[in-house]
Write a structure and sequence with these properties.
Helices cover 5% and strands 52% of the residues. By secondary structure, it is mainly β. A hairpin with a 2-residue loop joins strand 6 and strand 7. The N terminus is likely disordered.
Length: 485
C-alpha cells in the first residue's frame, strides 16, 4: 500500500475525531455522498459539488477534498475548476471515519462560435503593436494562426510573440484562422508615417430602431465624422447602459455590431482614447420600437395634392403640411434641402407659402434620425384670372333626387389650378368629385377642368350653389336651382 502525506493527515485526523466522539458520546459519521457522481466542465469554468454526510446530526461535519490530477481539474472546498482537457477523479473524505465518495470530472475544450481580434489597427512606421484573440463564448479556446494576406512589405508579423510591426505606409490585411479551419477572418491593418489623433468626432446614425434589427458601425464609414478629417487614428469604444435593450458586440478591426433586442430606451456611450491627446466622449439616447420607424406626409387632400406633388399659387397661397409619425420617439422633423426650394416657396414651421412660379422639391427627415425621410414635389402655378362653367343657365331645373354635372374651367388653362369653396342654400347639395387635374402628362400639358356635382333634394323648392375660387376669391359663380316633381 502506497502511503502519502494526504493519507497520513486523514488517518491522524480521523483517529482524533473518532477518539473525540467516543469520549464525548457524540453521533459518529457513518457515510458520505456527493451531489453528483460525474460532471463535464468546459476548460476554465467551475462547478460546485456538495458533500452530504450521514447521518445529518453527525457531530463532525468536516471533510477533505482532493483531485487525482490537479493538471486536469482542481478542487477547493467543493468548487471544481477545469484546467485542461482530460478526465480525473475528485474525492471527498470525512475526517470522522474517513468515509469517501467520488465524482468523475471530465474537462473538455469549448469550441468557439466566433473569434474577436484585438489590436490597434493604425500603426506608425517602425511601431510594434501586440495582438490577442477573445472568443465567443468566453470560455471557448482553440489554437489559431495569423498570417499576412499579401506579400506587400507593409507589416511584419511575429506570431510567436503575437506582435505586428509597421514597415511602410499603406493598407494591408492579415488572415486569422483556427487550426480546424472552422473560423476565419481577414483583418485590415493601416500603417501610417505619423498617426494623426482626432480632436473630436460625431456619429451620424439614427436614434430610432425596430426591435430585431442590427447595425454595423465601422470607424472608416461615412457614419463616423472625425475632426480633423484626415485623422488616421480611429480607435473607439461603445458601451450600452442596458444590454437587454441594445447589445454591443465588438467584431474587431474597429467594427461594432449594435443589436436592438426589445422595445425601450437606453444610452449608448462612445469614447475615443488616443495615446496622445484628450479622451473624447459622446453619449446619446436611443429608442427601440416594436414596429418599423417611418416618417411620411399626408397627401390625401385632393384640392392641394396631385399624386405626390403639392400645388400652390404665388402671392398668398399657403398649405400646412401634416406629418405622420410611426414608431418615432420624437414627433418632429428637420428640413434637409431648404436651399433647393427657397426660390419657389417659403417654409415657416409646417406652413408652406408659394413665392414664385416653378417646380421644386422639399425633403425632410425625422428628428435625430438620418434614414427616415420623406419628400414632396411642389408646383407653383399662376394665379387664376378667369372662370367659366359648362352650364351658365340663369336657372337649372332638376327633378327631386336628380343631379347635374357641371364643368368648371379655370384660366389660364395650362398654367393654373381650380380650387373652390362651395356654399349651398335650400334643398340642394354640391361637391367636386374630380381630381385636381383631369389628365396630366406633364406640367405643360394638362386639363384643369373640374367637375361640380349638384344634387336636388327630395322636396319641391329652390336652392343655390355658390362656388368661389380659393386662390382668387374674385372668381365666383352662383347656380340657381329649381326642384320639380
Amino acid at each position: 500500500m502506497r502511503i502519502n502525506a494526504f493519507t497520513i493527515v486523514i488517518t491522524i485526523a480521523a483517529l482524533l475525531a473518532s477518539a473525540s466522539c467516543k469520549d464525548s458520546g457524540d453521533v459518529a459519521v457513518k457515510g458520505v455522498s456527493l451531489s453528483e457522481t460525474a460532471i463535464t466542465l468546459p476548460m476554465g469554468t467551475t462547478k460546485e459539488l456538495t458533500a452530504k454526510i450521514v447521518p445529518k446530526k453527525a457531530a463532525n461535519q468536516n471533510v477533505i477534498w482532493e483531485s487525482a490530477d490537479k493538471g486536469i481539474a482542481t478542487v477547493n472546498n467543493g468548487v471544481v475548476k477545469g484546467i485542461k482537457d482530460g478526465t480525473t477523479i475528485v474525492t471527498v473524505t470525512t475526517l470522522d471515519g474517513f468515509f469517501s465518495a467520488e465524482c468523475q470530472v471530465t474537462v473538455a475544450t469549448v469550441k468557439p462560435e466566433k473569434m474577436v481580434f484585438h489590436s490597434d489597427y493604425t500603426i506608425e512606421v517602425g511601431q510594434t503593436k501586440s495582438y490577442y484573440l477573445t472568443w465567443v463564448p468566453e470560455n471557448a479556446d482553440m489554437a489559431y494562426s495569423v498570417s499576412a494576406l499579401y506579400n506587400d512589405g507593409i507589416i511584419e508579423l511575429d506570431e510567436e510573440n503575437r506582435l505586428i510591426k509597421g514597415l511602410k505606409a499603406g493598407t494591408t490585411q492579415i488572415k486569422v484562422r483556427t487550426f480546424d479551419n472552422s473560423l476565419e477572418k481577414n483583418i485590415g491593418i493601416r500603417v501610417v508615417e505619423k498617426a494623426i489623433y482626432p480632436t473630436d468626432f460625431m456619429i451620424q446614425m439614427d436614434h430610432d430602431y425596430q426591435a430585431g434589427t442590427s447595425v454595423r458601425l465601422n470607424a472608416w464609414s461615412s457614419t463616423m465624422k472625425w475632426e480633423p478629417e484626415d485623422a488616421n487614428y480611429r480607435e473607439f469604444n461603445i458601451k450600452s447602459d442596458d444590454e437587454s435593450i441594445i447589445s454591443v458586440e465588438y467584431e474587431g478591426a474597429n467594427i461594432y455590431i449594435l443589436s436592438f433586442l426589445k422595445a425601450g430606451k437606453t444610452n449608448l456611450v462612445f469614447t475615443v482614447n488616443p495615446p496622445s491627446g484628450k479622451s473624447i466622449l459622446r453619449m446619446g439616447e436611443f429608442y427601440v420600437h416594436a414596429g418599423a420607424p417611418k416618417l411620411s406626409i399626408d397627401k390625401s387632400d385632393k384640392d392641394y395634392w396631385y399624386g405626390s406633388s403639392l400645388i400652390l399659387i404665388p402671392g398668398g397661397s399657403t398649405y400646412t403640411l401634416n406629418f405622420l409619425y410611426e414608431n418615432l420617439y420624437h414627433n418632429d422633423f428637420a428640413v434637409t434641402n431648404a436651399d433647393v426650394f427657397a426660390k419657389y416657396v417659403k417654409l415657416d414651421g409646417k406652413k408652406v407659402t408659394a413665392t414664385q412660379v416653378g417646380s421644386t422639391n422639399m425633403s425632410f427627415r425625422a428628428k435625430d434620425n438620418y434614414s427616415y425621410t420623406t419628400s414632396a414635389g411642389v408646383r407653383v402655378m399662376e394665379k387664376p384670372t378667369n372662370l367659366a362653367v359648362s352650364n351658365d343657365n340663369s336657372l337649372i331645373e332638376l327633378k327631386k333626387g336628380a343631379s347635374a354635372n357641371i364643368g368648371l374651367y379655370t384660366y389660364p388653362r395650362n398654367g393654373t389650378v381650380g380650387r373652390f369653396d362651395i356654399k349651398t342654400t335650400g334643398y340642394v347639395t354640391a361637391e367636386i368629385t374630380s381630381s385636381l387635374f383631369r389628365t396630366w402628362s406633364s406640367f405643360s400639358s394638362f386639363d384643369n377642368t373640374r367637375t361640380l356635382v349638384i344634387k336636388a333634394g327630395n322636396y319641391v323648392g329652390t336652392g343655390t350653389v355658390t362656388i368661389t375660387n380659393k386662390d382668387n376669391p374674385s372668381l365666383a359663380h352662383t347656380f340657381n336651382i329649381k326642384i320639380i316633381n
